[in-house]
Design a protein that fits this description.
80% helix; mainly alpha; 3 helices
Length: 89
């Protein structure tokens, strides 16, 4: 097994494992935090200002998390394509 196969996007490669399992789960968690914040802000705690602030905070951190994840994901894909071990789709 070569280094490119070990790191590559095949079913046994590290990049393949990250792209198929780990990254989607992390994106789903960040999206769930965002949705939870929106639900708390608008629907559950409509009258309580402190609880609405908590919902706003969850929504903000969910958006920040998704932006960071997209940025890191893009940077990693640029790095992999530069090194010639880009995942095949």
């Amino acid at each position: 097994m070569t280094f490119a196969q070990f790191v590559g996007s095949g079913s046994t490669g590290i990049v393949g494992l990250l792209n198929t399992i780990v990254v989607p789960v992390i994106f789903a968690l960040a999206f769930a935090v965002f949705i939870w914040g929106i639900i708390n802000y608008f629907f559950i705690h409509g009258g309580e200002e402190t609880k609405r602030e908590e919902g706003r905070s969850f929504a903000l951190w969910g958006v920040i998390g998704m932006v960071v994840l997209f940025s890191v994901w893009g940077f990693v894909n640029i790095l992999l394509s530069t090194l010639g071990i880009a995942p095949t789709r």
